[in-house]
Amino acid sequence: MSAWLMASPGARAEGNMRWPCQMEARPCSRVFSGIQPTGVPHLGNYLGALENWVALQNQHPSVLYSIVDLHSITQPQDPTRLRSNVMDMAASLLACGVDPERAVLFQQSQVSEHAELSWILGCLTSMPRLRHLPQWKMKSKLKNEGSVGLYTYPVLQAADILLYKSTHVPVGEDQVQHLELAQDLARIFNNRYGDLFPEPRALLSSTQKVKSLRDPSAKMSKSDPQTMATITITDSADDIALKIRRAVTDFTSEVTFDPQTRPGVSNLVTIHAAVAQITVEAAVQQARGLDTGGYKKLVSDAVVQRLTPIGQELQRLRSDPAHLQEVLLQGTRRARELAAPVLREVQQRVGFC
Fold first, then answer.
1. Is the dihedral of CA 240, 243, 249, 251 positive or negative?
2. Are 274 and 49 contacting, i.e. CB atoms less than 8 angstroms apart?
3. Whole-model pTM?
4. How many helices (H) and strands (E) does the chain have?
5. Torsion angle of alpha carbons 10, 15, 16, 17, nearest 10°?
6. Taking the CB of residue 254, how many other CB atoms lie within 10 A of it?
7. What is the predicted pLDDT for the residue at 258?
8. Is residue 209 annotated as part of the catalytic site, yes or no?
9. 168: which strand partners?
10. Which whole-number Å values give the CA distances from 275 to 78, 90, 230, in the listed order?
11. Strand 30-35 and strand 62-67: pairing?
12. Do residues 45 and 9 lie in contact, with contact meaning Cβ atoms separated by under 8 Å?
């Protein structure tokens, strides 16, 4: 899973003016989300999460986005590749429209308070509580075992959220249980040591997930061994057209939207509606008179139009690594300004100082 928590296209605005939360008379609305540095995002990442990250910058007074490299090492990582992936993810987020003037964009491992708070919260978490969470059940089953880091992964997620007193977290349905752990830990800490953490609320996604172009029963994934299954945001126009042309559909030529009986065609309709920013009904209306072959051309043109500017900007940003490093450095400073006093308060309440 590339995204730490999937963002929600259905997030609600709670304020358009931007000022530091500590200056507000009312409780601060603060969004936190993170994404693992697993290389360049694919179309599903963009439509399911990153596009909304951009929108959230204008909907909440305080927004933090983290490249969560601490989470990424729950799986083996080549150090050189990991460093490169962090820079690629930073470039990708900026290219998609994340604005470091309106959102704090930073590298998780450079803010040590995340790991320190995770240890404290881990001491408030039972082993049975973690054993039944989906991350451990899914990945440990695949490997027949798992690391301690994988087991305690959701506690670090909770620390990521609570460290900034986040009030809202964009999540997909597969991450709701992990957010519930963060809510539980906020309550446990508050009950034991006095009120400190707000209980973060979910911003649930309301859009259909983008499926694999070769197997519409599975999500689009960068780890898919079939190269034709996944569109990345840096794919050329020719590559996008080829992948969509070879997308699995069925033997019915008419374009309809029925994910249960026609998952392949319905996936193309979902993609078309999302990239063209129209409803599914409008996408089906535009397909009238076209067979699936003609409709694939319409979809590929829409995807190319949407992704080409992003890909071009990403390549420009990649050529300026000093700028990317400076953006992350500034984000780290801003994140630590928020995190350090919260951790000091936690340490004081726990009895460390």
1. positive
2. no
3. 0.89
4. 15, 5
5. -160
6. 14
7. 96
8. no
9. 31, 201
10. 34, 22, 15
11. parallel
12. no
Strand order in the sheet with 168-171: 104-107, 62-67, 30-35, 168-171, 201-204
CB count in 10 Å sphere of residue 312? 12
Q: Which of 74, 48, 52 is nearest to 138 (CA)?
A: 74
Beta-strand runs (E) in the chain: 30-35, 62-67, 104-107, 168-171, 201-204
Using 50, 70 and 90 to split pLDDT, how confident is the model at 23? very low
Predicted pLDDT of residue 133: 78
User: What band does 168 get if pLDDT is binned at 50, 70 and 90?
Assistant: very high
- φ, ψ at 26 (rounded to 5°): -90, 165
Q: Please say if the pLDDT value at position 100 is more than 50.
A: yes
Continuous segment of H or E residues that includes residue 168: strand 168-171
Task: Given the residues 141, 165, 211, 219, select the one marked as catalytic.
Answer: 219
The pLDDT value given to residue 28: 75
Pairing of strands 168-171, 104-107: unpaired
Angle between helix 237-245 and 292-318 (nearest 10): 150
In this prediction, residues 238-246 reach a mean pLDDT of 98
Going by their DSSP bridges, the two strands 104-107 and 30-35 should be labelled as: unpaired
CA–CA separation, 294 and 111 (whole Å): 50
Cβ contact 66:53 at 8 Å: no
At residue 198, the 3 state secondary structure works out as coil
- Output the 3-class SS for 209-258: CCECCCCCCCECCCCCCCHHHCCECCCCHHHHHHHHHCCCCCCCCCCCCC
Asked if residue 94 has pLDDT above 80, the reply is yes
Give yes or no: 211 in active site: no
Q: Which two tokens stand for residue 270?
A: 């979902």
- In the residue annotation, 141 being an active-site residue is answered as no
Q: Which residue has the higher pLDDT, 128 or 254?
A: 254
Which amino acid, residue 131?
A: R
Other CB atoms within a 10 A radius of the CB of residue 267 amount to 26
| Mean pLDDT across 232-236 | 97
Question: Is the pLDDT reported for residue 87 higher than 70?
Answer: yes
Residue predicted with more confidence, 147 or 248: 248
* Residue 296 near residue 287 (C-beta atoms within 8 A): no
